[in-house]
Amino acid sequence: MTDFLPTGIELSYLVAASLFIFGLKKLGSPATARQGNVIAAVGMLLAIVATLLERQVLNYQMILLALVIGSVLGVIAALKVQMTDMPQMVGLLNGLGGAASALVGIGEFWRLLSTGEPVTLYATITIILGVLIGGVTLTGSLVAFAKLQGLLPGAPMTFPLQQPINALILIGFFVVSGFLIATPGHLSIFLGLLAISLLLGVLFVIPIGGGDMPVVISLLNSYSGLAASAAGFVVMNNMLIIAGALVGASGIILTQIMCKAMNRSLASVLFGAFGSSGSVAIAGASGSSDQTVKSVDAEEAAMMLGYARNVVIVPGYGMAVAQAQHAVRELADQLDKLGVEVKYAIHPVAGRMPGHMNVLLAEANVPYPQLYDMDDINPQFDETDVALVIGANDVVNPAARSDAGSPIYGMPILEVDKAKHAIVIKRGMSTGFAGVDNELFYKDKTMMLFGSAKDVVAQLVSQVKQL
What we know:
Blueprint: H1 4-26, H2 33-52, H3 60-80, H4 86-115, H5 121-149, H6 162-182, H7 187-205, H8 213-235, H9 238-262, H10 266-271, E1 294-295, H11 298-306, E2 310-315, H12 317-322, H13 325-337, E3 341-346, H14 356-363, E4 371-373, H15 374-377, E5 386-390, H16 399-402, E6 421-426, E7 446-450, H17 453-465
Parallel strand pairs: 1-7, 2-3, 2-5, 3-4, 5-6, 6-7
Transmembrane segments: 6-24, 36-53, 59-79, 119-145, 165-183, 189-208, 240-259, 266-285
Keywords: Cell inner membrane, Cell membrane, Membrane, NAD, NADP, Translocase, Transmembrane, Transmembrane helix
GO molecular function: NADP binding; proton-translocating NAD(P)+ transhydrogenase activity
């Protein structure tokens, strides 16, 4: 039995890794995402049970206590956190993953010091990497959480010579790492490395604007995976190495997808200090281009929607803030009863995290076949009677196609301006995260419906019912 145990554990790890990969594949579609989550969760449970059978695990009482505490906190978070707050939750979980990996490195370093074992070069390098990636992930994720929660300004926070200073601090980390490698077991040097890694995480995220949060969330998710993989090398656990590598690789792929959706390089996202907190203008007033907008009331808008053959709904962050997803679903149901074909156009970076709109609409039980990504829906706008934009801004701005001087020029957008009519629901004439005026608002066939998305959509539902 004792000879079989290590082999059984490794086989369990192999099965768990296969379930992780299969689960990730299922996450590629909204229709199978929940099933993918369940499959990956089963794999993680198998990996945890197999790890607990390791003879090196000595204190099962403390592990059981940690499992109970973690499970209780997880259940409370799952029940209490609103779907609109999911980006903040994901950012916080990324940070906790980084913290766990950093603590593994710290714990291993402390164990080597307390037992008097020789600190090998391999152990020193893996501990340094675990502390660096884990520390950056922890504080970077906390800053991202604070920006998303409104505890810090969403606009980029910069200061003179910011990037050179960041580079010097990073170089300092590697120099201090060299001292630790030369004098392994030096506690004060190790604590200095830990402090630098935490500082780097803060400096890494503060210059990034709120509009780039989908990229930041994806990248920090990748970092949390790399930190876990580094922790796996520290404790020589193959399952942790594999799981971390999968998360790291998938996070990098998703980051590249997000950058492509904005037509910007990762470097420009991280170091460009792009975006603003949005300048507010009076509803119905002319924009910076001295053009005027056409406004419409709920009754007229409901008539346009109810008598259309087809309607494309374009959700954005404003819908998420107003928690209007259930009202939007009710509006779509009412239009469907009138024989109107309803589709949803999803931009890859709409919202504050990858897939944010999909998650919100799934919560409202919107049928998956009605969700269309940008490449699929754009060719259909020419034949669309009414495009209903709810709280979206930069992702529908035609300036991305026509204005070479615009900061968002070249960014792929949802081509709402090609629809026969467009109705835009917004609180006012504020700009998006890019800080530029939206040409769509001033088009002849665009009508603005001002107000909170949840209240306005509820009015549309009431008016459509009377048709």
